[in-house]
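Handout, page 2. Input:
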Amino acid sequence: MASKFGLAGGIPERRVRPIWDAIDSRQFKNALKLVSSLLGKHPNSPYVLSLKALVLERMGKPDEALSVCLSAKELLHSNDSALMDDLTLSTLQNVFQRLGHSDLATSCYEHAAAKFPNNLDLMMGLFNCYVRESSFVKQQQTAIKMYKIASEERFLLWAVCSIQLQVLCGNGGEKLLLLAEGLLKKHVATHSLHEPEALLVYISLLEQQDKYGHALEILSGNLGSLLMVEVDKLRIQGRLLARTGDYKAAADVYEKILESCPDDWECLQHYLDCLLEDGPTWGNEPIENRIDAIKFADCRLSPLTDEVFNSRITRASTFVHKLQENLGNDIVRCPYLANLEIEQRKHLYGKGDEQKLMEDLIQYFFRFGHLACFTSDVEVFVQVLSSDKKMELFKKLMESSSTISLVPAKALGLSITIFKFQQLVGNMYGLTVSGLEDLAVKMVEMFCQNLPLSKDLDPQESMHGEELLSMACNVLIQ
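Output:
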């Protein structure tokens, strides 16, 4: 490109730099003066015209900017001697996009790529234009052209991802995916793969075709060494095993992951899914004998016998207890939240105990009630309880909060949690207008009383209890 030789769009860079400095410092009038002077010396330079259009657009003159852009575009198409470099085209593309005419920028890149079919910079610019337009077919075609020119792995992956997007959007099917798989197989045979992202794309392509066994073979082969972090490899292995229906092996894999990463909540849920064989092959079957007490839309019956179900739940509880014993601090929430998830699973299958769930919620409150995330953590589990049990739980949490000895900041967090929980269980809706006003005043007073806790905080840090103000506003306008 011209810029590599001290030129920018065919113009000496020392002439262009002051213009960009003025633009960057938002001195647009000065930038316009400089670019107009430069345009007088280079009237047929598409790059200088694109700079002028950029300045005009930044000055809030879209019509003038569009007119200048169109002039630059016309020069590029009609003047064979006009320099077509990526800097000129990217500047034009920037302005056209801000003016809402991305299609015009694409046409500029299409013309340039047709004129210089082996220029990768121009073709990558064209590919990016198609990405912005979500033109998946043209993305694929352009990426394959670049791959044929350079044989680079990244271009092949762009083509494969473009094919996957076509299929996901319903514009293609099995034949397109087979084409993508064939391209990857051929590349692996001749060049292998060198980046972990390439392996992930390969596996996702196989998953998209339900070829989970083949994906497992790839993962356990030489290509699997591309994934340097063992836990990442195990996560993929567990997912693939579950999709093949080998729930026992998948559960074993997820246990290994949780032993290394005990705070991986998504992994914990997958672990329970595998233990209870709650997979996509049967999870959407019609629901019979629904338990009226459970208000979940996704309630379903277990395919397991009572004996097997109970043994699997016991295994999960034992494993979770082991995780809790191995923890060295209370920061990790997942193993403790797992008790609630297990109890909820039992409810979903008609084997739950509301009293046990309440006890687990109270224990979780003792440990993490001061955290801002407490209410969102337990919300889904609270919904399992009946209205009377929710109110009973709220009263118990109120009583428990007075017995917990905490440093002032944590005590404030505990009080905020009580307010949030009160709203969660619907207790506020029964209050009179004066009762709501008193509650809002109480929140604001609590915030004011705890202002000294924030005196040593950095100005950019959030103040302790500042959410009390928004909560008070919500109480007043509900």
